[in-house]
Each structure stands twice: as structure tokens, then as C-alpha cells.
Amino acid sequence: MVSVGHLLGFALASLVLIVVPGPGVLFVVGRALAHGRRTALATALGHAGGNYAVAACVAVGLGAVLERSVQAFVIVKVAGALYLVWLGIHAIRHRRSLAGLPPRATAPWWASPTPRPTSCSARSCHSS
Q: Do residues 28 and 40 make contact, with C-beta atoms less than 8 angstroms apart?
């Protein structure tokens, strides 16, 4: 039988883990604030898909294989590192096409332009 102290400690630890948002939630919120609802929804779906993929790998026993086999773990780790290097090279090679994208139609709330005085020129501004 579980003691009341252990049960309360477990309940408190569970509450803290449930209430504190993880990096995935913070990433989705950041994307929502920067790019809008559609991008945030796509990010949340991608995050959920990744979680389901990891759960499926663990369900078929890949986690146990990686835990027991150092060689398999190193192969997966090196494959992940190579994929990240490929993503970085791809981003560097295509940075010009990304820079030429048209600006967003709506700016985030924190980036709203400040009103300028009405009579500004290149050399001076005079408030009306």
C-alpha cells in the first residue's frame, strides 16, 4: 500500500510537471506571436506528429534496442547529427531566396510602427 506522504509527493510533482509548459508549448506560442495562427497550428501539428512518431518507435521496441546496443545508439545519433548539418547547409545555400520573400501582411502586436510626425524630410522632422 502507498503511504499518504508518497501519494501527496507524487501528486505535487505531477501538478508541477503538468502546469509548467515544456519547450514544445513555448515554441508553438512563440511561432503564434511571430507568425500568426496558421503557422502556430502547423507547428502544433508537426510537434504532435513528432511525439506520435517517438511513441510509435518506443512501442515497437526501438527504445529498448537503443538502450541496450551502443552501436545502434551511435548510428542513430550520427544520423541525426548529419541531418542537422544537411539542414544547416540547405538553409545557408537558400538564404537569398528566403530573404526575398514578401513581407507579412500583418505585423505582430509588439512590432506595430510608431507614428511619425507629419512633416518629416530626410534632413529634419518638425512636429505639427
A: yes
What's the pLDDT tens digit per position in 64-123? 998 999 999 999 999 999 999 999 999 999 887 766 665 555 555 566 555 555 555 555
Cα gap 86→80, rounded to integer Å: 10
**Residue keyed to cell 510537471:** 17
From CA 56, how far away is CA 64, in angstroms rounded? Answer: 13
State how far the Cα of 96 lies from the Cα of 5, in Å rounded to an integer: 60
Q: Are 125 and 117 in contact (CB under 8 A)?
A: yes
CB 11 within 8 A of CB 3: no
> How far apart are the C-alpha atoms of 25 and 32, rounded to whole Å?
11
Cα 78 to Cα 40, 57, 71, 83, distances in angstroms: 30, 18, 10, 9
Is-above-0.70 flag for pTM?
A: no
